Amino acid sequence: MKILDFNSKNFWKSLAEAAKPVMQLKDVSEIVEKVLSDIKENGDKALIEYTHKFDKASLTPKTLKVSEDEIKDALKKVPASDKREIKNAIKCVRFFHKHTMPKNWRAKNPHGAIIGENFYPIKRVGLYIPGGQVPLVSTVVMTATLANLAGCPEICVCTPPSPEGKINAHLLTALYFSGVKEIYKVGGAQAIAAMGYGTKTIRQVEKLFGPGNAFVMEAKRRLFGEAGVDLLPGPSEVMIIADETATAKNVAADLLSQAEHGSGKEKIYLATTSKKLVEEIPSELKRQSKPLSHADKLAKIIENGCFVIFVPNLEAAVQAANFIAPEHLELQVEKSKIETLTKAITTAGAILQTEMTPTVLGDFTAGPSHTLPTGRTGRFSSGLQLVDFMRRSSIVKYDAKSIKKARPTVKAFSKMESLDAHGNSLFIREEQ
């Protein structure tokens, strides 16, 4: 853990160092390059080999895809109570994103021409759902629900199998309730390559979505152009702005909730005006983390990825937050200050207001997607939205009357840019 004092001479330098994105290792890049090249050249054969190598699962082209029987079996295994809560989470996510649905529109510009936009769902999208030690059922809800709501006709999902060649029953249940039927037992960079390039079994998608480890993110980055890519989210982050009304118990619990994702590179920040909180947080983090299932991993994050920022006032905390651009930002401050702070914070992926709104609500069920920008990319990007599963076309319609009004501008720009043919393409219509 490192304590930073806002008033110290080297504060901003220290904060920049703390918030520096984790650099991609050279060996990751080299491995991903090989995997992508191999999948592109050898398709299913390479895909099956990598699945056996990395996931220890022995599959064939016919067993790569999850069968209807496997989905039915999963639905039987999942308790009714869990099914109910998966449906409830989907309901909340749909409710939020229905309010963001873009609408086609038309209007007349100053020339009198008809202009507008049409929005279309992307025809075929590919979703990556991490598996491994923790099957991210919530990621299904936060991605597949949006794809379904946007009206994407084809939703392809890849997720790592167990060594027995199985997919977690809760994952399959969530996918089923989200309207996804095309599911493949493939993980890692090889899954991204398969969706990005296409193989005999897995047809190429038009855009890739979903979080993952460093190998998955590097694969997505390299495949941009072959297919669209949503975000390149890195390790989880949370920042809490707290004043004297906050309790060390609540703050520590929320910091730990984001530190347990497992990459070992998560970052947790506390910006507070309370000296008492600064003093209490170290011991409270250690106390709460000891009995937790990921205690060893949490200890490493507390030691290397935890930053406590002592600020003279909440305005200074806002400055620090806007610099860090955290994935999640909690406001555990006096209620009367919530809205003022919210207006001043301009780079956070998600803002969670009051001590009664821990980040876990955003992670699992509140409504907004939990796929959010990390590594300071919140300065110029936002979390996953419904519109990310759509594309748009602009509409322009002129007639003889509106063309006359546009003529002077076209003439001037054609001359300025020495593009005579541009101008002639309009002027010739006046001769007809």
Could you characterize the architecture of this molecule?
The protein has 432 residues and is of the alpha/beta class. The protein has three domains: 2-22 and 234-366, Nitrogenase molybdenum iron protein domain (Rossmann fold, 3-Layer(aba) Sandwich), CATH 3.40.50.1980; 26-229, Rossmann fold (3-Layer(aba) Sandwich), CATH 3.40.50.1980; 398-430, no CATH class. Helix content is 46%, strand content 16%. The chain is built from 17 helices and 14 strands. It has helices spanning 11-19, 26-42, 44-55, 68-77, 80-98, 137-150, 169-177, 188-197, 214-223, 248-259, 275-289, 295-304, 314-324, 338-344, 359-364, 400-416, 420-430; strands at 2-5, 105-108, 114-121, 124-128, 154-159, 182-185, 207-209, 228-229, 237-242, 267-272, 306-310, 328-332, 350-353, 390-397. The strands form three sheets. Strands 1-11-10-9-12-13 form a six-stranded parallel sheet, sandwiched between helices. Strands 6-5-4-7-8 form a five-stranded parallel sheet, sandwiched between helices. Helix 6 links the parallel strand 4 and strand 5 (154-159). The protein is globular and about 85 Å long. The termini are far apart. The relative contact order is 0.14.
